[in-house]
């Protein structure tokens, strides 16, 4: 009998990856494709959903070929995705009405300020656990229905998008929903992605009628919400489609919840931080949704079939890895690997602080009008200082969130599991341990986001029987412990707070 595997589609902000895992959680094959970033106006960020779907098909086929297996040897597919990024598409043609609005997109900041002026921020937080922000899908969907160009939609009916949405002729979804629809023909999302739309009540676990009315989003265009790991399955791939096989699609999680699951943070108090385009620090709070008083988000962590929802506290940092990409954009480095060597070549930043608020600041500051700021430069400032300041900004933003996390949860984090592309940088991991004064644990398999959705899909179809099996798969690559003097670190961190203050409310005229 041929070996069988689980496949994970990891659709991220900058590209799409497909990874095939075996029963031990090892990577069998891996294929990746970048997609274009569109910036039509300052603060606007878009993706082409059709390009994402085409790339998804491409990487799935390539990884299967690389593994030397047949599609029929995949027992299930799981999906993990960039969260909040919003797509609206025509139910008849399956074509998007416009580009997807990416989670980083700030075009609806004025709408958020209207909600603030109307004193609706706390009302939204009470229902969704979220800080009202342009980050989430509600205002993005509202904007699309009000502003998308109907001439781009090749149909003969009314051009009014809201009328068509009310009639069920338009579908809305985050990227997981878009992929599930194209893979199976079914309009489905999972609880973690639904919890990030700012339209979903995370206590009642249903779409909220009051929020739908506030943002004028018709219920008819919303997907069905299912558990993250679903024994009922979301559907099967078309046997006559690009795979030539009927493969179950059994799980979906937003990327940060998938990383939480892939890091086997199954118990209350378990925490992880993922360093990707942004960084996302999540702590499992068990079956209790803990409300934040310190600028964090209360969110759904995951749900398995037949089990209660597990909640999490989250600190969402918008720009970390993307700050390293910016260093490349402005020719300060040739590649990300160069940052460790350059940063290590100087003893400090020489008083330079870089606040990478390129798309505003997320947790715990929540300022959509903050902008990227460099302070403390002199004629002696060199690129080495700027590179080190960029890496330090990642660790300082993480400490901002960690301190808020401890204040909200009452739990001191003594060990933090880390993952994402940036943790390959050993200098950064050690720096993070020093700044947090906390043990940092890097796992052997750093593709924990894809691994989490694979685990969830495998549990749904019985490829793995229990979460204990998954814990047994998790192995440590390296642990980092604090080496720097805490008093020196605290002094530098205090100055970081002053730099952040200078970045706030900069883009008031945009």
What does this structure look like?
- The structure is a single chain.
- A 7-stranded mixed β-sheet has the order 17-18-16-15-21-22-23.
- The protein is an alpha+beta fold and 510 residues long.
- It has helices spanning 49-67, 109-117, 121-128, 137-147, 161-166, 175-184, 191-194, 209-214, 255-262, 321-329, 338-344, 383-409, 426-436, 448-461, 467-473, 486-503; strands spanning 5-11, 15-21, 27-34, 46-47, 74-81, 86-90, 100-101, 170-174, 188-190, 200-201, 206-207, 224-226, 235-236, 248-254, 271-275, 279-286, 297-302, 310-317, 353-355, 373-375, 415-419, 439-443, 476-480.
- Strand 1 (5-11) and strand 2 (15-21) form a beta hairpin.
Descriptors:
510 residues; alpha+beta; 7-stranded mixed beta sheet; 6-stranded mixed beta sheet; 16 helices; 23 strands
* Contiguous helical run count: 16
Largest sheet: 7 strands, mixed
The tally of strands reads: 23
pLDDT below 50 for ≥5 consecutive residues: which ranges? 151-158
Spatial extent as radius of gyration: 22 Å
Distance between the termini: 62 Å
How much strand?
15-25%
Structural class assignment = alpha+beta
Question: Fraction of residues in helices?
Answer: 25-40%
């Amino acid at each position: 009998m041929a070996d069988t595997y689980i496949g994970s589609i990891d659709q991220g902000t900058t590209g799409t990856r497909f990874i095939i895992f075996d029963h031990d959680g090892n990577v069998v094959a891996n294929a990746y494709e970048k997609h274009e970033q569109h910036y039509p106006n300052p603060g606007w960020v878009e993706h082409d959903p059709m390009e994402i779907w085409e790339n998804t098909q491409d990487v799935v086929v390539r990884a299967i070929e690389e593994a030397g297996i047949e599609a029929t040897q995949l027992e299930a597919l799981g999906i993990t995705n960039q969260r909040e990024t919003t797509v609206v598409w025509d139910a008849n043609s399956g074509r998007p009405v416009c580009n997807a609005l990416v989670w980083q997109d700030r075009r609806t900041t004025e709408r958020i300020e209207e909600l603030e002026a109307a004193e609706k921020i706390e009302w939204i937080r009470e229902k969704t656990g979220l800080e009202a922000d342009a980050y989430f899908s509600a205002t993005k969907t509202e904007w699309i229905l009000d502003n998308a160009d109907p001439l781009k939609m090749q149909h003969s009916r009314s051009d009014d998008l809201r009328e068509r949405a009310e009639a069920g002729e338009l579908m809305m979804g985050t990227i997981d929903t878009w992929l599930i629809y194209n893979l199976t023909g079914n309009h489905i999302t999972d609880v973690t992605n639904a919890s990030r739309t700012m339209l979903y009540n995370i206590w009642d676990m249903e779409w909220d009628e009051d929020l739908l009315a506030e943002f004028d989003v018709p219920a008819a265009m919303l997907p069905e919400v299912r558990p993250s790991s679903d024994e009922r399955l979301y559907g099967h791939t078309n046997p006559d489609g690009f795979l030539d096989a009927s493969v179950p699609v059994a799980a979906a999680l937003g990327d940060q919840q998938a990383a939480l699951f892939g890091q086997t943070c199954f118990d209350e108090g378990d925490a992880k931080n993922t360093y990707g385009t942004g960084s996302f620090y999540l702590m499992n709070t068990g079956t209790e949704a803990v409300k934040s008083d310190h600028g964090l988000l209360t969110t759904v962590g995951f749900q398995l079939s037949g089990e209660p929802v597990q909640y999490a506290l989250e600190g969402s940092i918008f720009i970390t890895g993307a700050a390293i990409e910016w260093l490349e954009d402005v020719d300060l480095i040739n590649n990300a690997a160069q940052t460790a060597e350059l940063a290590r070549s100087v003893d400090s930043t020489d008083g330079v602080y870089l606040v990478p608020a390129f798309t505003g600041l997320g947790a715990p500051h929540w300022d959509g009008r903050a902008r990227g700021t460099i302070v403390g430069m002199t004629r002696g400032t060199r690129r080495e200082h700027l590179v080190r300041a960029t890496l330090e900004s990642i660790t300082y933003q993480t400490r901002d969130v960690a301190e808020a996390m401890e204040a909200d949860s009452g739990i001191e984090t003594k060990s933090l599991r880390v993952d994402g592309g940036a943790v390959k940088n050993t200098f950064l991991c050690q720096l993070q341990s020093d700044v947090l004064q906390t043990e940092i644990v890097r796992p052997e398999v750093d593709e924990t986001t894809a691994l989490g959705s694979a685990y969830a899909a495998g549990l749904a179809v019985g490829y793995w029987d229990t979460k204990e099996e998954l814990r047994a798969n998790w192995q440590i690559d390296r642990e980092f412990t604090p080496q720097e003097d805490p008093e020196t670190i605290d002094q530098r961190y205090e100055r970081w707070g002053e730099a952040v203050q200078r970045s706030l409310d900069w883009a008031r005229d945009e």
